[in-house]
Design brief:
Layout: E1 2-7, H1 10-20, E2 27-32, H2 37-40, E3 42-43, H3 51-60, E4 65-68, H4 71-75, H5 78-84, E5 89-90, H6 98-101, H7 103-113, E6 120-123, H8 126-136, E7 140-144, E8 153-156, H9 159-170, E9 181-185, E10 190-199, E11 203-205, E12 210-211, E13 214-216, E14 220-223, E15 228-231, H10 238-258, E16 264-274, E17 277-284, H11 291-298, H12 303-311, E18 326-334, E19 346-347, E20 358-362, E21 365-368, E22 371-374, E23 378-386, H13 389-401, E24 408-409, H14 416-420
Parallel strand pairs: 1-2, 1-4, 2-3, 4-5
Antiparallel strand pairs: 6-9, 7-8, 7-9, 10-11, 10-16, 12-15, 13-14, 15-18, 16-17, 18-23, 18-24, 19-22, 20-23, 21-22
Helix pairs in contact: 1-11, 7-10, 8-9
Bound molecules: adenosine monophosphate (AMP) and glycine.
Length: about 425
């Protein structure tokens, strides 16, 4: 097969790495890719916002499958436009990507299908929002409605903090994404990420994963895109996975099909394990980053079979095999992330840290001749497998310590919940 993968993060390096192992892969392009994908595929500069140009490239290069990594192009309708040009695409339509693009859309679907989620109300003006907030009290969660690059959510411990977040949204801190605001009940419990590959009708669940969203050890500091992850996450027992499938994933897929906008691609449910069972925090319509990196380390089956099955409505016969044990990834980020950070600093030893069962996925890197440079906030994802989470953790941190990048930092406690429950 000839494949085009869209994206440039650690998720895309992991997807490219897994596809490159397939006997079925003839040629893989990544647009734009990074310093890691350059080793397993051909990076190309394509204007992903220009859907006609992407379609023309695919036709010229006889592309059999397009895999869309990030949410931005999906919400912009790239899957619709490429399908209209006759291409097979892994990723949801613009209508189905609203599950990630609009929190209000998802809340309405939850109401319609009886999906357990936080109580909420939605506002497009400050005064009624403030009145509702004072009525509800704290803790409470304030969310900008649209895509805000992971920064539009405030879990407020006090009314004052919640008010400040509301004012910030309506003052335009998130642009159009903050023109409508959702105020939500604060769910209590441990979080997990559950991924369901779908072809519009059939569902294949991947092992549950857990991410670490806060920047610093002990889950302190600002929210980030994710500082590390591991899978499987023991907090999601088989019984909880089954419940989440029945009460959250299946009704969402049924509801989208009933609306005439079936969901294909990967549905990512961010879940809270509350005292009453799993509740939905949010859906995303793509693989998680860095959750994807650990899932790809565990996957023994051919990733292309799964992605192609979802893209072409033939997922039913595909049942992936997973290796035993645990995979864990540690994100190396530029000092200062998720705030301002320096770019262009040199990294040494990243390739040499790879070994059997250890894989360094690149996120924000570029190669300049033999040198590797940091180009983003999250830069490397040092990923390892082990027979249990403690072993995977020890191997990942040994590899972290073999990489020389003075301008980088990482959390030292990725996997702590699972290690302490071992
Ligand atoms: P998001 O950007 O929507 O992924 O949200 C970021 C983080 O905010 C989530 O991973 C949760 O930790 C937290 N969060 C979002 N909504 C809620 C909620 N209703 N209750 C508790 N925590 C939440
Ligand atoms: N790691 C969480 C996300 O990709 O949104």
């Amino acid at each position: 097969m000839r494949v085009l993968l869209i994206g440039s993060g650690g998720r895309e390096h992991a997807l490219a790495w897994a596809m490159a192992k397939s006997d079925r892969l003839e040629k893989l392009f990544v647009a734009p890719g990074n310093g890691g994908t350059a080793l397993v595929a051909e990076n190309i500069a394509l204007d992903v916002a220009d859907h006609d140009a992407v379609a023309a490239f695919c036709q010229r290069e006889l592309i059999d499958l397009v895999v869309v990594g990030p949410e931005g192009p999906l919400v912009a309708g790239i899957a619709d436009d490429l399908r209209a040009a006759g291409l097979a695409v892994f990723g949801p339509s613009k209508a189905a990507a609203q599950l990630e693009g609009s929190k209000a859309f998802t809340k309405a679907l939850c109401d319609e299908m009886g999906i357990p989620t936080a109580r909420y109300a939605r506002f497009d003006a400050l005064d009624p929002a403030l009145a509702y907030l004072r009525e509800q009290g704290a803790p409470i969660v304030i969310k900008a409605d649209g895509l805000a690059a992971g920064k539009g959510v405030t879990v407020a411990g006090t009314i004052e903090a919640a008010e400040a977040a509301l004012r910030e949204c309506f003052d335009g801190a998130f642009g159009n994404a903050g023109a409508e605001v959702v105020i939500e009940e604060c769910l209590m419990g441990e979080e997990a990420s559950l991924f369901a590959v779908c072809d519009g009708e059939h569902i294949t669940l991947l092992p549950p994963a857990q991410d670490h969203k806060r920047a610093y050890d002990g889950d302190e500091g600002p929210n980030t895109g994710g500082m590390g992850a591991y899978a499987p996450a023991p907090v999601m027992t088989d019984a909880l996975v089954e419940r989440a499938l029945r009460e959250i994933i299946e009704p969402a897929i049924r509801g989208m099909a009933a609306r005439g906008t079936p969901f294909s691609g990967v549905l990512f449910a961010g879940l809270m394990m509350t005292a009453e069972g799993p509740k939905l925090i949010e859906f995303n319509t793509r693989f998680g980053d860095p959750e994807c990196q650990v899932l790809m380390m565990l996957l023994e089956s051919d990733l292309l079979d799964i992605l192609e099955g979802a893209a072409t409505g033939r997922l039913a016969p595909v049942t992936p095999r997973w290796r035993d044990g645990v995979a864990l990834t540690v994100v190396l980020a530029a000092k200062g992330y998720p705030g301002a950070y320096e770019k262009g600093t040199a990294i040494a030893g990243a390739d040499a840290a790879n070994s059997d069962g250890v894989q360094v996925f690149h996120a924000g890197t570029a190669r300049e001749g033999a040198a590797l440079k940091a180009t983003g906030g999250r830069v490397l994802n040092v990923t390892a497998v082990g027979s249990d989470v403690a072993e995977a953790q020890a191997r990942a941190y040994a590899a972290v310590d073999a990489i020389d990048w003075p301008e980088g930092f990482c959390r030292r406690d990725i996997g702590w919940r699972a290690v302490s429950s071992q």
